[in-house]
């Protein structure tokens, strides 16, 4: 008995003691139950697909979308902050207002780039780890892997493209952040260097990307994921930006760049069905996989489907149960909520961004093709859906619905909700639209090709007078020039004609206002699509390129049309001021960042431990 | 022959086996009698072997007879009967026993003087050989006190243990800090150990300690204070090293009461307490409020129209006229007289073999704020059973169930803010209350209301009655222990194996509901919702301990060795259901309505530890202790999984030295104790060393996976190294005793969340070792033992005082930045600043200099008197000499607040004057100065105990000295910038040109009259008479005839008086995240009395 008890006592002690001592390190390895650890990851194709999905998911997050819109549109002459929404959006109203007024402080959280780098990091994961999967999953072919990597490269390029257009220079990171032993404080790389890396990435992606994706549960993924066409479109856009670089004063280089843009555009057209617009925009079928929509109206839809015209758009849907007021959108992250927040929903017609008539009055001369061709008052008079002269630009029906607020007439922006659904506003169940956010569509290809043709010829034929002032050739002095300008005009006309009953008439115009015409047509076509500020910036860079003084107040002259505030002019008077400051928090965290000189303030020099 | 021999042998063998068998199975019988009572019934008859282990047993019948089948005649029989001396007889060949038991001599009080021992968790070391810094207190000290949890009673009793009540709400919990704060993140509460088993729960990793409120600190609510026998507080690292990585905040060791040998005793205690809230701020009544609001609204932009708000107009044509013409005292309505009924019963007893103690408690409390109740059912069972002289089996079982009804809203706070002219109920046309609560906003015409903060403010009475916030908590801890002496301790050295396994089962739930009737929001608003939360956990701890105490022939030396191996593991899971759009009358979150939230989270944890402990003593004069703990944690990667925590301490009993003989008459004991040790801390979260991928809802129809963190490969244990120099002394044979400790604690590799460049794709490391904090201080503890004794009258004192200085030695810039926010130029906020070389808890703000008397500057004295002007009552810029600064046209420069900004503000008459430190005519961030620190210079307590025969009077006070508090409650009550109700002191406000006052004008929505300034930074020093207890025990002789053994009465007054200069309700304010004490008007600790009776039989 005594022995028995001794054994009873000692047995478990010994067993427990020995067992756990010998394997205690293993016993102390506890694996999480609600997540997968790296050791179990990157084993088969679905792992890659899941991270690729997260990458796109990162782009439809509100934080990301908000930056795409704030950086690309809010600062431009297209939008104003809606003062009547001040109370509803108390947290963000001031941030929007300061961007809209171009008085951006380094403390403005819209300067934070974390959501963009989140996507870059995810892309870096795919680029680094997808090749490993190839060897482990027999069903995952090399070409499938390369296609996934091409998607990641393109998305990464898109993100960096946004960053350098906004901040001029940013830390260029291509390694995924995995471990705390990695160096994370990285200095900014000059914009032109980042740009050449982007181009490298896109050239690789361009050759490896898929041309189409299968339809998944009724959704045609071809429009919503990166295809070869998407890579082409982005590359064309990137190259236009490169050619506008004021630091590259080499006509031959730029001509090569412009030619590549034209080639890329032609390549996209080759993949598209362009027959329907060659004769008349009203007779085409518009049903092909990639073709111009018959009407401007059908490009945008309130539901989560893509139009035939889209090349790359972000898919949105109310995927999570329970629709919320976009005001409280923190719990759900979906791009449409940002669009709804900015431009309003069917149930609450107005959003944070606004348009006033005064923004578009008095600025028409710059864009006039010839006197009397366009009604000066109707081009941007967004209030008019139809005017007596019959020059009815369809595109503005989607930014109308007038109402009178205190003082000036202000307008709802209805681009992303073609039909206003009447609803009782107090049922607490906002009837949101789920518009997709379009990055590139076929219309863009036309106008990019036009721009490339115009600028190529412009640059090649520019002269300067005795005072160093630019002289544009007043006459078409060469056949090539005439041909290119004529083609450019035809491309612009294609876009214009689709939305106007009165067709585009080509008369003699100077190349000077052909540039401006292209810019104006881009504004009319892509109003509120997050492109305007970058368009202005690109134009300003080109002005600067030919003459350091030529750009002065170029952007300011546009932006002041929406504001009577004289301060805005002074806030936009240097090239540096056209870029954004680094976010204060980021500066604190990364000691290697050097603030844009325009935003450096006295207080930065005060040492606060 | 041979054959025959074989048979004989075989037969003999058979016989012998038969005989042997017969011997073992023999039946013995007999009678047990006594001289006085004749045959004795129920006498226990036990067969025991030579190690006193019970083999068989029986009891005698009515006639005192017994029979028993014995195992071995070599064993003995023992006869036991309560009140008689036991007898032990060898069985041998006797089969019939006639036993006569003799009556026990009743002994008059035996004084046994045994060596008291102390333990830090390892060895039991004689009191005078303890070389570590620890302090022990017996709960006898708190007799007669009625507290919900023991930390309340402990407040002020332990030198160096700073305990601050979180709030006066029921189950409010206490914030405990031992020897200052040495950690940036996570739990700073000391570890709680009950009977050698860690009681502190493994809290889920997302629990935010820095911002935790109320009940989250109330863990000790799960132990009935009556079950606790004594508390041992381990202070220095050489003591806490035994608890390794969990002891870095200090350790509170609780020992529960055990069964006592002897007759079964029953004791019942009942205590009744009545509580009320101390006098708070005097607020405006309805009439004064509407007057003030109209003035504030008018002043904001000098327009009558802006002051035209229907609820303030007493307009009889307004449909809610009757509901807005009252003088409601909201504070009075939400407070009440709170009561506590505290029942406690315990049964204890046992014999030589077994001892037990069973207790049950029922604690029922209603709060001083309406609709708060706390019910606690607790039970504990301790059972010791001696299997044999060398084997002991112990089981412990504890069960607690706590059921708390809380308020959904912070009622008292709302009562302070709610407009007093509004009524509680909807009123009919004649002004009579209907039964319906009046919800401002819901019932009133919404468009007529535009009164800022009042618009959505709930009716606090309605909230108390209609909303629900219930939480329930079960905790069951069964423990099984075995103690086995591998060697016979009487013969040779002691080698003892102790082993226990303990289970800890917990279940929490909380059920909340907020009805539509309380809100002015739409029915579909998410605020109108029900939430149900459930959390269950299971933990298992197993520990094997081996103690070896060799017997030396030279008794001058004594050595004890101890080794232990501990493993603990557990899992938990939580689940939340939230739903809204509930139909009226439906209060359950799972009622199948609009589900707005559904989440669950499982967790798992494992710990492993190896401990070695040695104690050596030479003549008990020179003593040394050595501790080494090696802790394994699942929270670190391969290379840092194990942490080592050593501790060394020495004690030199100087008074034992021969050359100290001269002083032995008065200096009974004097010792010096230097010690050094290391303790550590692990991060709160698990799985940090993995690179994890979490799922998201993905894109289109593909579910997404994304990296969730940065793998922390280089993460290390947080390490606290501490030095302690201590001394114990006793004078005049222990009449006066005490101890003194000086310590220095250096915490390096501080664990903290760490912001990183977001260009990495992440915004932070979950944890990083990022700095160093030092704590330095001293503690003095004094006590007396029958200090003054005159006949039956004795007086005793106890006193303790402690001081701690906390210094941030090194902290990564990005961590500092997370504390150092930009000044936001808003009213009511203080600039947060944490600097290397300073401590946490520094307060910065403007200097308040009163109120501008006039709007415009005039160089003539407006009172018409000649001579130099003495006042500086205009808002103009002045230079360092006090001279007015003029511009080039001779106009005085206007005084501004953040000039040049969109929010610039020109000061006018009636506005607050802030000191323009740099004399630039502009009040901005550069005029912010240091205003004080929230860490006390000293804190402690003292008590005095008078005893006369059976009457005891015990008075105890605690104090804190030298800390500053930001009185945010008063700031809000005097800000006059929103529609909150205000303190009556604002009636003294500036109203017109020339008024001399310290109270600025009423200004709705604009102005900067309530900036964070020294106006609200107050000295939080206090001395509180915490309790006065009167205890009278009736002479047992008088009550013996009623079969009672004990009868005593208590009367206690708690929180009787608080001496302080602090103007708030209660100077006991805890610390917020960066160590600053903000008094935001939490429920103050109530004053209460307790009457109690304790009966034993």
Strand content of chain B: 35-45%
Strand order of the largest sheet of chain A: 2-6-8-7
Which parts of chain B are unreliable, with pLDDT below 50 for 5 consecutive residues or more?
8-23, 107-113, 204-215, 864-868
Largest sheet of chain A: 4 strands, antiparallel
What integer is the average pLDDT of chain B? Answer: 83
Mean pLDDT of chain A: 75
Radius of gyration of chain B: 36 Å
Question: How many DSSP-defined strands of chain B?
Answer: 55
Percent of residues in β-strands of chain A: 5-15%
Task: Outline the secondary-structure elements.
The complex is a heterodimer of chains A (609) and B (1097).
Chain A: H1 2-22, H2 24-27, E1 36-37, H3 45-60, H4 62-74, E2 80-81, H5 90-100, H6 114-136, H7 142-167, H8 191-208, E3 215-216, E4 219-220, H9 228-243, H10 251-271, H11 275-279, E5 310-314, H12 335-343, E6 353-356, H13 376-379, E7 402-404, E8 409-411, E9 437-441, H14 442-461, E10 463-464, E11 470-471, H15 479-499, H16 511-525, H17 532-546, H18 554-559, H19 567-571, H20 584-589
Antiparallel strand pairs in A: 2-6, 3-4, 5-9, 6-8, 7-8, 10-11
Chain B: H1 2-24, E1 27-34, E2 38-39, E3 44-48, E4 54-59, E5 65-69, E6 76-80, E7 87-90, E8 96-101, E9 117-119, E10 124-126, E11 134-138, H2 150-154, E12 161-165, E13 174-178, E14 191-194, E15 197-198, E16 228-234, H3 237-240, E17 251-256, E18 262-276, H4 286-301, H5 330-334, E19 338-350, E20 354-366, E21 373-386, E22 391-405, H6 411-417, E23 425-427, E24 433-437, H7 460-466, E25 468-485, E26 494-513, E27 529-549, E28 557-580, E29 594-618, E30 622-633, E31 642-653, E32 667-681, E33 692-699, E34 702-707, E35 718-731, E36 736-748, E37 751-755, E38 764-769, E39 771-784, E40 788-790, E41 793-811, H8 813-819, E42 842-845, E43 848-851, E44 896-897, E45 905-906, E46 912-914, E47 922-923, E48 929-933, E49 938-948, E50 951-961, E51 964-966, H9 968-974, E52 1017-1019, E53 1022-1033, H10 1036-1039, E54 1046-1060, E55 1087-1096
